[in-house]
Amino acid sequence: RPVADCLRDPGGVSAVEFALIAPFLILIYLGTIELSLMLIADRKVTSTASTLGDLVARDTVVDECDIDDIFAASRIIFQPNDSASAQMRVTSILNNAGTYTVDWSEARGPNDSGGSTTIVPITTAELASRTFNANLITDGGSVVYAEVSYFHQALFVNYSAVDGNANLSDEFFVRPRRTDSVVRDTTAMTCP
């Protein structure tokens, strides 16, 4: 009789149901937070790539101080994410009778493993391995090509069987605004 009374007693049903459902609710809640943080980081990468290209395309000539300022301004967009781990590269690409060549390229940022090795400027050989829209650059013209990549490290998912880390990247093409080609002044100077 006591066992039968326990089986018919509805008092603990809610506690048992909650104990069964709670892990899934917590998992969904943490997953939503993680997905939101990754989407925010992805939007930051896109915004940074467009800003990096746009700031260079506004000038006619960029020197070392200008480049440093442009990269510093682009890193501010990453706030509150860790901008020190973002890799950024900006390149001026020329079209010489249908052949794309690198006029100049500048890069800043650590490698994917978080080490001190910086991303290197793009070379004409590396550029040749990429595919571009044939109508992207008119013959004799140029385009500013900005690339940003960022290793997003998940907050919660790293502690489970699911890998929540992601390599986020974006690229942006913009034509120079006031000139056919943005010139890179390589004169040595001291920046303020």
Q: Which descriptors would you attach to this protein?
A:
4 helices; elongated; 6 strands; 192 residues; alpha+beta; 4-stranded antiparallel β-sheet
Structural class, by secondary structure, is: alpha+beta
- Largest beta-sheet characterization: 4 strands, antiparallel
Please give the alpha-carbon distance between the first and last residues: 89 Å
**Rg over CA atoms:** 25 Å
Q: What do you see in this structure?
A:
The protein is α+β, with helices and mostly antiparallel strands and 192 residues long. Helices cover 36% and strands 23% of the residues. The chain contains four helices and six strands; from the N terminus they run ααβαββαβββ. The strands form two sheets. The chain has a four-stranded antiparallel β-sheet with strand order 3-2-4-5. Strands 1-6 form a two-stranded parallel ribbon. Strand 2 and strand 3 form a beta hairpin. The chain is elongated and about 95 Å long. It starts with a helix and ends in an 8-residue tail after the last strand. The model is unreliable at 112-117 (pLDDT under 50).
